[in-house]
Amino acid sequence: MAAKRKVGSLCRTFWVAILFLASISAIITVAVIQTQWRVQEYSLEYGIVVDSGSSRSTVYLYKWPGEKQNETGVVSEVRNCKVSGEGISAMKVNAEKDKRMWAAFKVCMKNITGEVPAEKRKKTPLFLGATAGMRLLNEENKNRSDEVILSLKEYLKSQPFMFQDATILTGQEEGLYGWVTVNYLMGNFLEKTLWNSFIRPGGARTVGSMDLGGASTQLAFEVDGELKGEDYLPVRLYGYDYNVYTHSYLCYGKNEAGKQILDRIIKASPDPTYIQNPCFQEGFNTTVKASSIYNSACTQTPDNFDPNTEFTFVGKPDTDKCRELVRTLFDFTNCTAEACSFNGVQQPPVRGDFMAYAGFFFTANALQLSGSSELDLFNSTLREFCHTNKTILRVIRPDISEKYLITYCYSAHYVFTLLVDGYKFDPDTWKHIAFEREVKGTSLGWSLGYMLSMSNMIPSDSKEILPMSSPLFAGLIFLFSALMIITVVFLFIMLIRTCY
After folding, report:
1. Residue 347 in contact with residue 245, Cβ under 8 Å?
2. Any domain includes 303
């Protein structure tokens, strides 16, 4: 009988000990689950960039998930709004024009504001970046340039957003951010997996970027890491490093190049009141004031300059003469480096694929050669285009207004000369140029690349999601703690009975 009681006592002790250990394990398990299985729930972040170019301003709204990939946001464009009127470099000259421009800004900012959730507006960063038009104004008239930027800062500070800065970008920054935009949209930095996560594409190569604006043009492409110099910029995106060659040419945008060509035609004409223009198709006639040609530092003001002097240009197409005029804008002989583009600027050989956008795209599109094409085809098409009568052109391209159609003969020659004689594209490398306006429905330009870079600096809003609610967690801890205490009491009682 005593033996049975002893065995029964041991059994009870065993099960109580098991219950005690199970309670401890349960408490530890609950605590680990609550601390280690917690997740961060991120909300969408928003950012606004005002791209103030030489011709006009455009307001872009971007968004990205707060959970970044290697510290860089996965950014997408929500919408953009084009501010009607001229570029901001025309401000502080005519009060009536300024009034219209401010009204246009207000329309765009109202439209953009409506796209941002009210609770997010105070935390949405707002940037303005001015490009070549303001770089030129800053050189010509720094006081007016400063006044323009100051007035924009005051206006943007009054918006319901977290205003950061209004500044004039350097040409290098504009080129680099354009390169970032192109490669981001093409998926060369990140690709989505089947598990809805992002990884770096295996064997991905970056694409070169070529931007033709109104007052400047930018070239940027990735090079070997050992190349160094003032035109080589290191950039880190999504945890990886890139070495990018980038150079910007002020006064070599489409509009400023066009003014310089008109200036050369005027100076070569024996009759300043009736000027034959070899870069205009037959049927195109236009009269312009001297002030519209000599209104920037890119064109040298002639002696006895009168801004009200009128010049009448008459189309007399001659593609060879037009090509010669275009070539006079460049210096292809002065080079102290191993290889140069033009004007003595050192440039490594172009390699790989390139995306040509903005003015490059619109020029190629006028020739109906957007996308990729052959160099010889581009050359022959532009010659045919330049010798097509205005009447026929208006039928072929009714989608292009006469204001722009008249410019595409000289700009086609300009694009050809810049890319072939300047950047040194040949028949083989030309095949790797794609003339595009956008990628995946998103506009090409520097602003998206800028927002990507700025997303590194913007903290994310998040809230912590626990696997168990606080009452459930506390209840489980209390339950298993109580069980543990009860088992300790039972063990203590059993030990007392066994010993005494």
Report:
1. yes
2. no
49-61 tens-digit pLDDT: 999 988 889 999 9
CA–CA dist 343, 218 (Å, integer): 14
Q: Identify the CATH number of the domain in which residue 197 sits.
A: 3.30.420.40
- Would residue 273 count as lying in a domain? no
Is 259 contained in some domain?
no
Across the beta sheet with 208-212, the strand order is 232-237, 240-250, 216-222, 208-212, 354-358, 433-435
Q: What is the pLDDT of residue 72?
A: 45
The domain in which residue 86 lies consists of: 42-252+438-455
pLDDT tens readout for residues 224-235: 878 888 999 988
Instruction: State the number of CA atoms in the 13 A half-sphere of 133 facing the CB.
Output: 22
- What sign for the dihedral angle of Cα 159, 160, 164, 169? negative
Concatenate the DSSP letters of all residues of 380-440 into one string: HHHHHHHTS-HHHHHHH-TTS-HHHHTTHHHHHHHHHHIIIIIS---HHHHTTEEE-SEET
Please report whether residue 403 resides in a domain. Answer: no
Q: Is the pLDDT of residue 484 over 70?
A: no
The Cβ of residue 98 has, within 10 Å, a number of other Cβ atoms equal to: 17
The pTM of the whole model exceeds 0.85: no
Torsion from C-alpha of 467, 468, 469, 471, nearest 10 degrees: -160
Q: Could you list the active site residues?
A: 174
CA distances from 181 to 134, 189, 250, 448 (A): 22, 10, 21, 6
Q: What is d(CA 470, CA 472) in angstroms, rounded to the nearest whole number?
A: 6
Q: Name the DSSP class of 231.
A: T
Q: Which residues pair with 127 in a beta bridge?
A: 49, 165
